[in-house]
Amino acid sequence: MKKRLRVLALMHDDLVPPETRNGERDQDELQPWRTEFDVCSALKALGHDVVKLGVGDDVAAIRDAVRDFQPHVAFNLLVEFHGAGTYDQHVASYLELLCANYTGCNPRGLTLARDKALSKEILAYHRVRVPRFQTFARGRPVRRLARLRFPLFVKSVNEEASLGISGASLVRDDEALAERVEWLHAQIGSDAIAEEYVEGRELYVGVLGNTRLQTFPARELLIENLPEGAPTIATRRVKWDQAYQRKMGVHTEFAELAEPLARELSRVARRAYKSLRMSGYGRLDFRLDPEGRLFLLEANPNADLARDDDFAQSAAGAKLGYEALIQKLLGLGMSYRADWKEPGRVASALLR
Predict the structure, then answer these.
(1) Do the strands 192-196 and 152-156 form a parallel or antiparallel pair, or are they unpaired?
(2) Looking at the domain assignment, is residue 222 inside a domain?
């Protein structure tokens, strides 16, 4: 019989879900907090004591909740702080400073994976194939390296959730490159990265674990109603606009792959996960080109955990149901070997 746990569910203060879902509500209206609702519902179904904490811009709320509730583990659903996605690693760091267990990726893995340029350099060193790329810092002229060949795909170097990605992100000459980079600098407020566009199938692989890793069956992005010859790109509308998804026939399904390719995809995903020092869970995004070569596009720690999203669906494909997945994440969070747990440090931590 599993132990009943005290779980502190950390989420953004504007995404705290209601206790029950009104079946007559329009699904679009449920979209903003569906992950938080699904996770908290699963935690309660598992029999755990759950406190939902909506967090704004004050870490004191986290400190006070950890002190007062004394959770066995915090279920971390925070993806930014002060509106900055790059601060997600500091939330995990703060939980470690509080000597609190938490679900999801550790601070180092969040830092390495967030920086798309740094992560590609690390992955290339570890023999994981990535597209050739170049970064463009704000306030500097846009000068393309001669080795970088068009078409190029331009995006923020550190933002996630397809922020700033649209059809205009795919550029085919230097003028369009400069225009898109300057737009990103001005509108998104981050440095830009341009990588050689890889034509082919877009595949998503879920990875679960801290040291012993499990990969889930790959999912494939499909856009059925694209005009002939148009590229398959996971733009912001493709990811988040449900009306657009219905219009364009956007969906994901389990990828049909030959067994040798499926094994290679699993092996490369595990290597990339380890190379970036990730833990907990994450999703690795690949392109499979017409020649059968795999290119890793991005690593996404703490992937979306909504019941009907790709990570949970991939887990279900590996015979791991939603509640079992959530329970597994709790166990991984409690077993992660943070530095404060090392021998000789535990006693001093408990005295605080």
Answers:
(1) antiparallel
(2) yes
- For residues 318 and 216, is the Cβ–Cβ distance under 8 A? yes
b/e per residue 112-124 (b: at least 16 CB within 10 A): bbbbbbbbbebbe
Pairing assessment for the beta strands 73-76 and 49-55 based on DSSP bridges: unpaired
CATH number at residue 161: 3.30.1490
Distance CA 33, CA 35 (A): 6
* pLDDT tens digits for range 59-83: 999 999 999 999 999 999 999 888 8
Strands 170-171 and 219-223: unpaired
Cβ-contact 330, 103 below 8 angstroms: yes
C-alpha 317/C-alpha 312 separation (Å) is: 9
CA distances from 195 to 133, 167, 297 (A): 4, 15, 9
Residue 267 and residue 278: Cα distance in Å, rounded? 15
Kindly report, residue by residue over 285-323, the tens digit of the pLDDT: 999 999 999 999 999 999 999 999 999 999 999 999 999
**238 and 320, same domain (yes or no):** yes
Task: Tell me the two tokens of residue 7.
Answer: 């779980």
